[in-house]
Write a structure and sequence with these properties.
heterodimer; A: alpha/beta; globular; B: about 400 residues; alpha/beta; six-stranded mixed β-sheet; 16 helices
């Protein structure tokens, strides 16, 4: 089984070969607790997730809208730590969990843990990469070096405000995939996506040597279906996190409902 | 060696740790700032407002009675930022930035505020220069500082309470950044201290350096030499940086930054970021932070609302590392005593923030050699704190 950056990229390429956009569901780890997170990961794999984005909660999530902010607040009550997360990943890998998992988290917890140490432990545990939204290209060098050394996916972001020449440089530095932010703004469901999004994605894919995933604001199967022809992969976050928020007290229903919704999303990725 | 470097680093500190969406805006801001900084008309306009509107230069006042009280062996001067329009140094920065925003063609100003001082100073500058202004303020702070909310509204600003996280200053900054990420094309974010991503720490330092430049000139005129010790309080650190920076190359001038030890350094209720914090990344910068062992940011506390921040300007972090400045902390009770001391001896009610710097001078005065010249930056006036101090003393009848 291919792990790390190559595993992530391969999973996305395989979806293309099936005539689909890859689906990357996001869940906030430890919301409502790490036990449920583990069950959710299995459910996501079964529902057809191609790659999974697992959030590591942070006290000050400044790129996130209210839905994910609240999820972080709930998760932080469990006092989560990176070693706990890695332990869980290691456990499910040993039980045969195949889907690539990338962690999404703000820089400080990784910095505190030590970037080199984190990269090493992530590789050992079978975590495949990281998305760090407050780490732009100019500051990313130390992380890119460690990620490369451990063959992890170092996923950088590009935004609608990013000029083409800059986007090309960012994509060049990326491994796994390039995360294209669909809107000028924060995470969270939106009724309408920008009209020129398909054009922007075309350009991003042309400039990027790695696959391009689009995220932020995508919340319905219809939106997924509309975008599928224009992108390699689609990230859906807040819409899933909302379901998790709704069924906090009933973990069994929570997992079932998330699973049902992700199946619908996955079905919509067919081009 | 001119710092920060091109990427906004002060040694290992500083930088631009922000979502990609904001990077082009930071480049644009840096270009605009570097341009207007050298632009004659911009400088002339800013000088005009600083002189006729803010009331600069502010006096350097020889506090003889305070000196007498502390043993009579020192020459103590107070740099009277408390006498500026709006009553604190904050206006030096907001006028500079709002003027820059206007030159850049931005129509809308946003700002964060803790206790409300920076919010009021931003609303003031926005009213003067005719720009629309929105201020984010922690929901808890809007209750604690109701009068400042009203002041900002009087000045035509919209105040938005922030209910996320700890509902205080750090969360107000998060929310202002979220607004900026969303409206980056039309909106200018006025940061209130020497914090945040590059170029803010450099730019705010430069706008506040008017304090230290005047002080240098004034003390040379009064004493014919530079001071031995200069002291300022440090929250985010803008008054201290503006005061220190023009003395940075004068190695004989000892610079001391005084943080808030709150209820005590071992209490978990303090804001002594440089004294007991550790390096990390928050609000776009690498600097010292109050954080737990896994890197979550902790709440800060001080009786002085303006010091209540779990981070600090990256250039201060650099001064700490290189030893160019010394950073210490005094507790709430010590600051309160100093608040009273200055009121009684000099007839000046200092801001609780500034009272921290005075409190530390009270502590070290006996060890300073005869004839030492000491200058304290009196960053703001204490009128805003009178009600809170009154409440506090009522709760603690022994104090």
């Amino acid at each position: 089984m291919l792990r790390g950056a190559s595993g992530v990229e391969k999973a996305i390429v395989k979806a293309q070969e099936r005539g689909e956009a890859a689906l990357i569901p996001f869940i906030e780890g430890a919301d409502p607790d790490l036990k449920v997170t583990e069950e959710l990961l299995w459910a996501l794999e079964e529902a057809g997730a191609d790659v999974i984005e697992l959030g590591f909660p942070f006290s000050d999530p400044l790129a996130d809208g209210p839905t994910i902010q609240e999820a972080a607040q709930r998760a932080l009550k469990n006092k989560p730590s990176l070693p706990q997360f890695l332990e869980m990943i290691q456990k499910i890998r040993s039980e045969g969990f195949k889907t690539p998992v990338v962690i999404m988290g703000y820089l400080n917890p990784f910095f505190r843990f030590g970037l080199a140490n984190f990269a090493l432990k992530a590789q050992e545990a079978g975590l495949d990469g990281a998305i760090i939204p407050d780490l732009p290209l100019e500051e990313a060098k130390p992380w890119l070096k460690e990620a490369r050394k451990r063959k992890l996916a170092a996923i950088l972001l590009a935004a609608p405000t990013t000029p083409p020449e800059r986007l090309a440089k960012i994509a060049e530095a990326c491994t796994g995939f390039l995360y294209y932010v669909s809107v000028t703004g924060i995470t969270g469901a939106r009724e309408k996506l920008p009209e020129d999004l398909a054009l922007k994605l075309d350009l991003a894919r042309e400039l990027s040597p790695v696959p391009v995933a689009v995220g932020f604001g995508i919340s319905t199967p219809q939106q997924v279906a509309n975008l599928a022809p224009f992108t390699d992969a689609i990230v859906v976050g807040s819409a899933i996190v909302k379901i998790i928020a709704r069924y906090q007290e009933e973990p069994a229903t929570l997992v079932k409902e998330v699973s049902r919704f992700v199946r619908e999303l996955k079905a919509a990725t067919r081009r | 060696m001119a710092l920060p470097d091109k990427r906004g680093h002060f040694g290992p500190f500083g930088g631009r740790y922000v979502p990609e969406t904001l990077m082009p805006a930071l480049f644009e801001l840096e270009d605009a700032y570097r341009h207007f900084k050298r632009d004659k008309d911009f400088k002339k306009e800013l000088d005009f407002y600083l002189k006729t509107y803010v009331g600069r230069p502010t006096p350097l006042y020889p506090a003889r009675k305070l000196a007498q009280k502390l043993g009579g062996h020192l020459k103590i001067y107070l740099k009277r930022e408390d006498l500026t329009h709006t009553g604190a140094h904050k206006i030096n920065n907001t006028l500079g930035q709002v003027l820059l925003a206007k030159k850049m063609g931005k129509k809308r100003i946003i700002a964060e505020t803790g206790a409300g001082q920076h919010g009021v100073a931003t609303a003031t500058a926005a009213a003067l220069l005719g720009l629309e202004c929105t201020v984010y303020m922690g929901a808890k702070d809007t209750v604690r500082q109701e009068m400042n909310v009203f002041r900002m509204e009087l000045l035509g600003a919209k105040v938005v309470p922030v209910y996320s996280g700890t509902q205080t200053l750090k969360d107000a900054i998060n929310e202002a950044i979220r607004d900026w990420v969303t409206n980056v094309e039309t909106t200018y974010y006025v940061i209130g201290s020497v914090v945040g991503p590059h170029p803010y720490p450099m730019m705010v330092r430069d706008f506040q350096s008017v304090i230290g430049k005047e002080t240098r000139r004034q003390i040379l005129a009064a004493e014919g030499r530079l001071p031995d010790v200069i002291l300022a309080c440090v929250g985010g650190g803008s008054n201290a940086m503006g005061f220190f920076f023009p003395f940075v190359n004068d190695q004989m001038v000892k610079m001391i930054g005084v943080e808030a030890a709150g209820a005590g350094l071992d209490s978990d209720k303090h804001s002594a970021t440089l004294t007991v914090g550790e390096p990390g990344i928050l609000h776009g910068m690498l600097t010292y932070l109050l954080q737990d062992k896994v890197g979550q940011i902790k709440g800060a506390h001080s009786i002085a609302p303006g010091l209540d921040y779990p981070g600090v300007g990256p250039e201060h972090a650099f001064f700490k590392e290189t030893g160019r400045a010394e950073y210490v902390a005094v507790e709430d009770e010590e600051a309160l005593s100093a608040f009273r001391l200055l009121s009684e001896t000099e007839g000046i009610i200092p801001a609780l923030e500034s009272a921290h710097a005075i409190a530390y001078l009270v502590k070290i005065a006996p060890q300073l050699p005869e004839g030492s010249i000491v200058v304290i930056n009196l960053s703001g006036r204490g009128d805003k704190d009178v009600a809170a101090v009154c409440q506090y003393l009522k709760r603690k009848p022994h104090a």
